[in-house]
Amino acid sequence: MEQGSVHGKVARKASNDGSNQTPALIDYNLFDSDPVLVDAVLRENAGGFRSELAATGNELGRADNFDAARLANQYGPVLRTHDARGVRIDEVEFHPAWHALLSAIARRRLHNRPWSQPGTGAHVARAAAYFMQTQIESGTLCPTTMTYGAIAAMRRDANLARDWLPTLLSDQHDARNLPLAAKAGGMIGMGMTEKQGGSDVRANTTQATRVADGSYRLLGHKWFFSAPQCDAHLVLAQSESGLSCFFVPRYTPEDKKNGVLIQRLKDKLGNRSNASAEVEFDHAYATLLGEPGRGIPTILEMGTFTRLDCVTGTAGLMRQALAHALNHARHRSVFGKPLVEQPLMQSVLADLCLESAAATVLALRLARAFDAPEGDEHEAAIRRIMTPVAKFWVCKRGPELAAEAMEVLGGNGYVEELPLARIYREMPVNSIWEGSGNVMCLDLLRGLSRYPASVAAIEETFVRMKGRDALFDQAYPPLLLRLAGGGWPEAEARHLAWRLVSLFCAALLLDSGLPPLATAFCQTRLSPRRGSVFGSFEGPIAAKEIIAASWREK
Ligand SMILES: Cc1cc2nc3c(=O)[nH]c(=O)nc-3n(C[C@H](O)[C@H](O)[C@H](O)COP(=O)(O)OP(=O)(O)OC[C@H]3O[C@@H](n4cnc5c(N)ncnc54)[C@H](O)[C@@H]3O)c2cc1C
Prior knowledge:
Order of helices and strands: HHHHEEHHHHHEEEEEEEHEEHHHHHHHHH
Strand content: 5-15%
Largest sheet: 7 strands, mixed
Low-confidence stretches: 1-8
CATH topology of the largest domain: Butyryl-CoA Dehydrogenase, subunit A, domain 2
Number of domains: 2
Number of strands: 11
Oligomer: single chain
Radius of gyration: 24 Å
Number of helices: 19
CATH class of the largest domain: Mainly Beta
Bound molecules: flavin-adenine dinucleotide
């Protein structure tokens, strides 16, 4: 009996002292600890924002933010279709943590910064802040991104610009369900996908009928309609001139609730803090945005920006997964020494560092193309060709990296108390929405055949790096010939996108101040030395240097 209680005491002590468990990754600076991000911000013309981004990184790294993210996902949105009297209200209730996160996002102007405070490096600086914000929580970034993209399209309409932009360009999160005039801030969503077709939006059947005052009434449905609590959505519908883009506010000009009926919320794999709805349009009030019959190009103006955010958001999630893997490997000892000193784990970690670095530099380079003034043909070509390619590739790499990073943490990685499981569930959606993988690769082919001069911009990027790495010098000329050759089979579009993005990332890393990463990226991505899973190399790579170059101590 006595002995048992002694054993009981010993066992309790052993399980309570936390020995060989990893310290929590909280209260650190997301910017200063990330040398790849800092380097990319400086290179892509946003050096003026460095101290502001460091302050943002410091603020975001606080424990309370990670806790808010957990709460917003654990207690997800709840739909309330009717009030107690049976009147339709179509409201979504969120946990206070959701609103706290969105208030901080609005304060950082992630939904409008380049439009409210334009200038050199504005899109890059926003992308860097977004990259850090997504490391905290991703669901809140869905309406944030849609608003950022929608403003680009709405600016072209004088009436919308006059009536809506002052509220959308504020730094306030105002979640109240009120007409715009009563609000201090606003958010915009998007409705394209219907049951019978998402990628092929020409299959949309929602009907838009013009009425006497020139506005329209929508009748139909949307199968995916995220953030239905937004103050308005850009919606595709068939008008008498064909598929057109419409602006559908939550309230009519008479301040009456518009006929947008939320049918139910989707039960999703990830992105659980965010509400994604199915809606019916019951003669919903709408106004035309852009030219009638030109709905796809009009809404694609928004889509180009949201695709950039899919790249940046995935790159940010990759960085957070990597940060946890590095943190764990440095503190967890196995078979007598820390994981980070075990050669095979070094191969895995170094490979994760390379993948994350490539995604980071690509996202910020792409953001720079969005900073270029209209008329800059070189940057327009980079934007046109590299946006779909980057969206395809980075979003494909994300889930694989998240799974491997999770495994670095062993069983702890699989448990919900750490964010790895949530990051893993979050990853695939960026590849699916805003144009799925194949659609992005077909978009590359379309871009190349419509704008053959774009190849010159890619060539210039490669030629500038000539002479820095023998593998790179060998690999890029055949790709340029292939890009310029035309006649690309659809079936090979993924292969072409893969070669292009690998060389493009290699060029960006060769241009960076991170030589161990650049050399190893070329060694492992431009030659057959790397196997098809993380950490599988034939021959040595500078693993320790790569790991050291990827994390700067708090
Ligand atoms: C969580 C979530 C939220 C969403 N929120 C919104 C929203 O707010 N608004 C909105 O409008 N939509 C939203 N969507 C919908 C999303 O944009 C679509 O699911 C996506 O565009 C794919 O369309 P689909 O589901 O109809 O699939 P499909 O179009 O049927 O495509 C299925 C597959 O076929 C592939 N494919 C398509 N065409 C070709 C081709 N020619 N050759 C080879 N392969 C092809 C696609 O890449 C895809 O992998 C959301 C989706 C999710 C998961």
